[in-house]
């Protein structure tokens, strides 16, 4: 095991303990990219309706943790705080005065899951999801046997 020097101890005393991937942690509200289940930008969080994909992931992964950007208006964040409370998921408001991330919401695990696509690019309203399940196609209605 490596022996710490006096200089290392002083540096950690002044700047805090050494942290892995500090830029990544600043961007993703204190967590690492490899742990993220789903992420939303600030503008997506600011929309009036809740993303059903976020709610679905909260249902499926009750052991996850919700990180919200504390630099945003609480009115925009409150709907996701209510969802987290509903599904008994811990949540944290992350405020970093030195770096304002473009990320507004992160749902993450406490271990690496390495999900390839973490960003939600298209919003699917709950009503449309139900309609898609019911619609089996145009031709199946015409050519019923």
What does the model show?
The chain is α+β, with helices and mostly antiparallel strands and 145 residues long. The chain has one domain: 60s Ribosomal Protein L30, Chain: A (2-Layer Sandwich). The protein is 39% helix and 15% strand. The protein is built from 7 helices and 4 strands; from the N terminus they run H-H-E-H-H-E-H-E-E-H-H. The chain has helices at 6-15, 22-27, 42-45, 52-60, 74-86, 126-134, 138-142, and strands spanning 36-41, 65-69, 90-94, 103-108. Strands 1-4-2-3 form a 4-stranded mixed sheet. The longest helix has 13 residues, at 74-86. The relative contact order is 0.20. The model has no long low-confidence stretch (mean pLDDT 83).
Supply the key terms:
single chain, alpha+beta, four-stranded mixed beta sheet, elongated, 7 helices, 145 residues, 60s Ribosomal Protein L30, Chain: A
List the helices and strands and how they pair.
Blueprint: H1 6-15, H2 22-27, E1 36-41, H3 42-45, H4 52-60, E2 65-69, H5 74-86, E3 90-94, E4 103-108, H6 126-134, H7 138-142
Parallel strand pairs: 2-3
Antiparallel strand pairs: 1-4, 2-4
Give a quick precis of the structure.
This protein is of the alpha+beta class.
CATH uppermost class:
Alpha Beta
Q: Major β-sheet, in short?
A: 4 strands, mixed
Strand order of the largest sheet: 1-4-2-3
Please identify which CATH superfamily we are dealing with: Ribosomal protein L30/S12
Number of strands: 4
Form type: elongated
- Provide the structure class: alpha+beta
Question: Which spans of ≥5 residues are poorly predicted at pLDDT below 50?
Answer: none
Give me the Rg, rounded. 20 Å
Assigned CATH architecture: 2-Layer Sandwich
| Mean pLDDT across every amino acid position | 83
- What's the SSE pattern? HHEHHEHEEHH
Number of helices: 7
Helix content: 25-40%
Q: According to CATH, what is the topology? A: 60s Ribosomal Protein L30, Chain: A
Strand content: 15-25%
Number of separate domains = 1
What is the rounded distance between the termini? 74 Å
Quaternary structure classification: single chain
């Amino acid at each position: 095991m490596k022996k710490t020097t006096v200089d290392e101890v002083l540096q950690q005393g002044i700047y805090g303990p050494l942290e892995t991937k500090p830029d990544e942690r600043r961007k993703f509200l204190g967590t690492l990219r490899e742990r993220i289940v789903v992420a939303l930008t600030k503008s997506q969080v600011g929309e009036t309706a809740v993303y059903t994909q976020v709610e679905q992931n909260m249902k499926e992964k009750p052991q996850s943790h919700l990180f919200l950007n504390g630099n945003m208006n609480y009115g925009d964040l409150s709907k996701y705080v209510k969802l987290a409370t509903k599904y008994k998921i811990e949540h944290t408001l992350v405020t970093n005065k030195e770096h304002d991330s473009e990320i507004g919401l992160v749902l993450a695990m406490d271990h690496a899951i390495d999900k390839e696509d973490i960003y939600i690019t298209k919003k699917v309203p709950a009503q449309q999801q139900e309609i898609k399940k019911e619609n089996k196609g145009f031709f199946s209605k015409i050519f019923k046997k």
